[in-house]
Amino acid sequence: MKIKFLHLLPGKLFSKGIFVGFFTGLLITTAFSLGTIVHGQSTPLVYACVQNKEGEIRIVSQGQQCRKDETPITWPQSIPSNIGGNSKLICPQCNFTEETPNEFDVFPSKNIDGAFIPVCNLSQYNLSNFSIQNIYGTDCTFNNIIATATNFSNSDLKGSTFNNAQANNANFTNTNLSGLNNPFGKGTIATSFNGATLTNANFTNANLDSVDFTNANLTGATFSGAIVTNLILSNTTCPDGSNSDTNSPAGTCPGL
After folding, report:
1. N or C: which end of the chain has fewer CB within 10 A?
2. pLDDT reading at 6 higher than 50
3. What integer is the mean pLDDT of 44-52?
């Protein structure tokens, strides 16, 4: 039996069905590329059950039966670099959940580089020291994550939320964190770090247009070469330790 680690749940940005045909073909094509990986290989696997209606992923033990409303899936703990090209994990609108909170061990290798996971939900998980480079994760939810020294560089995270995230020393170099155009409505979906702790984070050359840093702590953060137009700075602790509300003019940080 071939490994399946791909799941498509149309909804939110995909609710109109515009992209369903494209992604269906993409998933089938990538699934065929997994033909050389079969159960019984020495490569350690992650075993999971996907809830058919909502698409929630539940990690289980090897041999554990899925529920009647779930589909069993497996994928390598560390996906070989030759699988799926630049999209090793293809999972639009997946809601990653676990039996044990705060332990995101779906990928024990701590590497999900190149993933295609728009509209994902990774809230509350411990992603510290993960490599999450070159991913497509627009409109994702990373609220309340622990992301100490996590590498998000060179990724497309437009319109994502990192509210109350603990992301000290996180690397957002060359990452696009600007607003996401809403394809089914007016305006944009803004990226938000409301209440996030981002001490010594690296935003070098990042696109931060219209990012909301309300109540965020940016002490020691680096913004060299970053696009910092239209930032929302309200009760924000600035990189130099000052408060945006008491700076002159109010609502600004030196150098931003």
Report:
1. N
2. no
3. 73
